[in-house]
Design goal:
single chain; 512 residues; alpha/beta; TIM Barrel; 2 domains; 6-stranded parallel sheet; 14 helices; 32% helix; globular; binds zinc ion
Length: 512
Amino acid sequence: MRLRCLAAGLLIASSIAGAQTTTHNPPAILIKGGQLVDGTGSSPRKADLLIENGIITKIAATFDATEMGNTMTIDATGKVVAPGFIDTHAHGDPRDEAAAFENFLAQGVTTICLGQDGSSVRVAEMEKWMRSIDENPTGPNIVLFVGQGTIRDESGTKLSENPTPEQLTTMRNLSEQAMKMGCFGMTTGLEYQPGLFAKAEELRMVAEPVGAHGGLVMSHLRTEDDDQLFAAMRELFDQGRAAKVPVHVSHLKSVYGKGAPRAEEILAFMDKARANGDRITADVYPYEASFTGLAILFPAWALPPNKYDEVVATKRDELAQYLRNRITKRNGPAATLFGTGGDAGKTLEQVAKETGKPFEDVLIEKGPDGGSAAYFIMDEALRQRLMADPHVNICSDGSPTMRHPRGYGSFAKVIREQVTDRKTMTLEQAVHKMSGLAAETIGLTAQKRGELKEGWAADVVIFDPPKVKDTATFENPKQLAEGFDIVIINGQITRQDGKMAGKLNGRMLRKR
Ligand SMILES: [Zn+2]
């Protein structure tokens, strides 16, 4: 299948079963003969779908375009037609060379949510940032969340444990401004600086404007360690209740937790809170390794505002002991795979062997700012059970540059693994978790995105499910996924047959 534009405004021929019509731009697109998996979770049905000016204008059992001139026909016989996928937790900067985000497009993702883990563009620069995307379209559509950590920095609170009343008011005002500019909500990163300094009152105040504007608070919890997971979730649910805002657990997982029964307990904990009126959702990425900065391994007392050099000079033995215990608990040094710097691609165990040093000394020398790593700390059975929950959608937590396959493989992996190979999910369930459910969770259904319906935005993917494959691995993490034949964003073909096609058409989406 190759789309060739022989001459602007003359003929566009799509080789999907030789479909062709005369047209001028932008042509309407008629997708004929496909199995519609519409994103709501309902069963596939055969239907034709017409796209005009970026909108799905008609869905019908069969549709005759002969009287319609100006239309490009795509024969999708034997293929699935689905809403473009929505990644509720993504990373990357659209203003740099990553603007195309082909890593996401190749997975069928047509919208990504940025500003994660408490860190976003500053509120003072947000309007300009959004306008720059209006002026320079991206690959996928962009949804922005404001970062609580960013607001904390911007308010001058920074690493202070006790913000002044003025600082609290400033944080609340920044949150309000961000929501008025069109953010879909706020993210927190309570396991990271400066979020880890935030306490209940601050978390309530900064989230209230989010609730008032109908937004969502997404949280990288204070800890994801199994033994403290419920307390960390409780803190988020309390924030939601106090600030009257729905909350979302980002990349739900249990570090060290094992087995499906443990997942059942975690889900039951969430169900119980839901039964008490809390509005709670979560997303999961389909890998057993996390990826983040080495600071995640270090104790708070080795992080700013404390000076790392001084900590090493005065408490080296204590730090070594802490790191030894922490790594042992996190499945040992073979389970930490460096992703940046000269040791990228090597495990902590390998580096320790090569340098002849105990692994804790390797970490002490690198320090908390010494790069990032993948950590093989999750249990597959537990993760799969979490992923199956009806309130859990799929995310990648990936980026174009991160040395972790999730940025290139997540959505394709779920289809290959859960739908094609193991049959633990139906295609319509998987698609729902990647589109309709995600849209509903972040508030995009109100903008008519995330499902295939008449009058809704034409973000559409066409694929043959058994051909969908994630090819990215931990050894070669930056390999594009395969099998999404056509990716349509805002009514225009953006990627086709494994190649970018034409100009970027992703938009800055603003909450209205
Ligand atoms: Zn995170």
